[in-house]
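Exercise 7b. Backbone tokens:
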């Protein structure tokens, strides 16, 4: 494939990002067969899983055959870990001395899963993130501030190394508190940063209220890459972040066990590119398990990291829900697009009063109403045999006179977007919980009961 000079500067890897779909599919199948054989030969866990299903690596010859391979769930990984080779157990495919990176899941849905990566895997992580950052306009001239606590969670670790790989100057925000981070960004004129949507909005509030700094006017941030929550793909939340910072906000999606597999580009087409050169992403019908190839149907995301070797990720049930777009992006990349980003998780998309509701739909409504603060909380409970849903919101100072109009607009939009009625609790600003990393705004007390 001949690459023009313009293409060479527009894409991190112009060959792979412009590869025709049929060649991408052939590359994926070739890589899938390789990683499947690797895991079968070296992982007790994978070999046992496949043998119990009556499957041999040689049985997989085409893309359709991939669906025959059993899925892996997070609970399976919990069951096989904390044993020899300690602490990773039966899924490890390399000698323990080849493991150079340890991270673990946040444990928000149960006991954390340990993730082992070799140096080769860590280079792969950085390559995946380099594709993301380059697509979002990061270049050598950028000074990137990363305001997260560098610890055992993978978070933006790979984003840090990818930014360096691109030639950016990286400022690690590490142990600094929020106010110190803001002042350091101002002092050094940082041009970009990476954070969760919750923290992006929280930093803006702190800058204004505690430091008298207006992010959009007093800071130099031109682009922000988000992760960890769906907010950057929710139009009203994205708009709030972009207005607060005077910067473009881009989404990305990934997971500790999977890698950084999806991203928004400069074109912001209304969805996320799937990095199909490094990942095989499939959507399965939520009821039948049938593979979905067309647009217009929501499915559960099942992912294979095609080049991750130490602790492979093969047909991993992410529990995330999405749908394919019926368009390709104007940026020229041939990677398929997840329309509107990840909609939610099968764990979170729940039936209330007979209606399926995604928390992201509630967030879109709350963040679209002028006069409301950034924080909110949803509590679902039982009153007798009936479901009850309460939405707690904060009214911005000076909006007391508009209270009834705001609440009427909120109820109308909630009814329109979610087909449900809500009990609304109005709280004063800063009275609802604040979160520095992943927010926990949706609480289903019926499950607790």
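Sequence design result:
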């Amino acid at each position: 494939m001949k690459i023009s000079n313009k293409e060479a500067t527009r894409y991190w890897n112009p060959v792979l990002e412009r590869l025709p779909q049929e060649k991408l599919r052939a590359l994926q199948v070739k890589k899938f067969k390789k990683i499947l054989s690797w895991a079968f030969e070296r992982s007790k866990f994978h070999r046992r899983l496949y043998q119990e299903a009556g499957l041999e690596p040689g049985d997989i010859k085409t893309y359709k055959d991939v669906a025959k391979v059993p899925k892996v769930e997070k609970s399976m990984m919990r069951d096989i870990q904390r044993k020899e080779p300690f602490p990773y157990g039966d899924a490890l495919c390399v000698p323990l001395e080849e493991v150079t990176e340890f991270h673990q899941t946040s444990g928000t849905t149960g006991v954390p899963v340990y993730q082992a990566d070799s140096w080769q895997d860590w280079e792969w992580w950085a390559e995946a993130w380099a594709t993301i950052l380059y697509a979002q306009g990061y270049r050598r001239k950028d000074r990137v501030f990363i305001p997260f606590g560098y610890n055992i969670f993978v978070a933006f670790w790979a984003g840090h190394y990818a930014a360096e790989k691109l030639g950016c100057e990286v400022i690690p925000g590490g142990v600094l508190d929020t106010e110190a981070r803001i002042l350091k960004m101002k002092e050094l004129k940082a041009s970009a940063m990476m954070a969760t949507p919750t923290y992006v909005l929280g930093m803006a509030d702190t800058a204004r209220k505690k430091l008298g700094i207006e992010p959009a006017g007093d800071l130099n941030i031109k682009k922000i890459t988000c992760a960890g929550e769906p907010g950057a793909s929710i139009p009203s939340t994205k708009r709030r972040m972009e207005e607060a910072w005077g910067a473009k906000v881009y989404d990305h999606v990934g997971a500790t066990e999977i890698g950084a597999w999806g991203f928004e580009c400069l074109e912001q087409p209304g969805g996320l590119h799937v990095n199909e050169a490094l990942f095989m992403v499939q959507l399965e019908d939520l009821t039948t398990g049938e593979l979905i190839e067309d647009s217009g149907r929501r499915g559960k995301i099942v992912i294979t990291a095609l080049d991750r070797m130490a602790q492979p990720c093969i047909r991993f049930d992410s529990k995330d829900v999405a749908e394919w777009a019926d368009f390709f992006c104007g940026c020229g990349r041939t990677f398929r697009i997840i329309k509107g980003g990840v909609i939610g998780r099968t764990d979170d998309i729940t039936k209330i009063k007979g209606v399926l509701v995604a928390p992201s739909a509630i967030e879109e409504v709350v963040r679209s109403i002028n006069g409301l603060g950034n924080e909110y909380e949803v509590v679902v409970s039982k009153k007798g045999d009936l479901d009850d849903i309460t939405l707690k919101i904060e009214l911005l100072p000076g909006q007391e006179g508009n209270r009834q109009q705001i609440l009427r607009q909120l109820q109308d939009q909630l009814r329109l977007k979610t087909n449900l009625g809500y009990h609304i609790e109005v709280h004063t600003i800063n009275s609802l919980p604040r979160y520095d990393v992943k927010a926990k705004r949706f609480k289903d007390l019926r499950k607790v009961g």
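Instructor comment: The first helix runs from residue 5 to 10. The first strand starts at residue 99 and ends at 104.
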